[in-house]
Amino acid sequence: MTHVLTEVPEVLLMGPGPSAVHPETYKAMSVSTLGHMDAQFIDIMDETSEKLRSLMNTKNAVTFPVSGTGSAGMEATFVNLVEPGDRVLILVNGVFGTRMTDVAGRLGAEVDTIEAEWGTAIDVAEVKKRLGEQAYKIVAVIHAETSTGVRNPVAEIGALVRDTDALYLVDGVTSLGGMPVKLDEWGVDAFYSGTQKCLSVPPGLAPASFSDRAISAIENRKAKVPNWYLDVSMLSAYYQGKSRKRSYHHTAPINMIYGLLQGLALIEDEGYQAVYDRHRHVHERLVAGIEKLGLSMVVDPDYRLPNLNAVTVPEGVDEAAVRQALRNKHHIEIGAGLGPLAGKIWRVGIMGHTARETNVDRFLGALTEELGA
Q1: Running DSSP on this structure, what letter comes out for residue 352?
Q2: Mean pLDDT to the nearest integer, 250-261
Q3: 148, 112 Cβ separation under 8 angstroms
């Protein structure tokens, strides 16, 4: 029998996601599938949740992988916490803050925004001023804005939200596993991420965590959560049921959870700080190479992500043609700009297993060739 995937080449994934997958994670995902209510699989779920709590620096009991990509994580946090008429403040400086606004609006929220120019960070002083003028049920922000390469000041914003009655919702899709995430210290009430970025697991799961305050808000809703599949009150009975008694909710993606557990174990084995230092070091190597080519970075160094790098396309260069040549000739994938940055930047991801010196050197060599530098 002919294998249907024999023509898929090995591509170095250096775009905004997915990232390269570690061989041990592929191996874990090929292990025999268990039933989703099997006692051994429940142990695997429990271990996965515990490793997520450790990486997220939280004691939140309701911490589990949502069955779906990072966008499902976004939907899950909002659909459980927002009811029609709730006032929500969303801090927007890229595609994913804009997407939050759309999701909250679809749920009937009264949405206010604070917007910053794409490529710049959210102004903490503006947040402080707004919180002094208006009460909100939720304040939401992107930790690592994948569309621009900006790191938002989530700790400083969390300190402001803590002085209000609002719930603090943070998107950590591109940060978890590549830079410190400290949910309890920052006062985060709802958090979600994705497996395909710094965790170096294929796309398909959205690690999420809800504080006791968030769970209380869900339990005291006026009406049921409008999305059955993402209803945390039911999901938690499956993932965090008392003792070994679990309530069936849906058939979990068993082998994806194997992969997530392995990805988390690899990070744990290397050491959290060592992983963050590796991302930072490889980022600095990339920036030095970019600047040596006479190119520039979009984001100010104080707010620059190590994991996702926005590079300004030189005047007169066809950015799409360069990306196509990198993919077809060099088997390297990078990303294009989005929104107002479309055609103006390249997005270069050095996330998870991709964050290696050899990968950066290979990319810089290929880019040098294509630019004729």
Answers
A1: G
A2: 96
A3: no
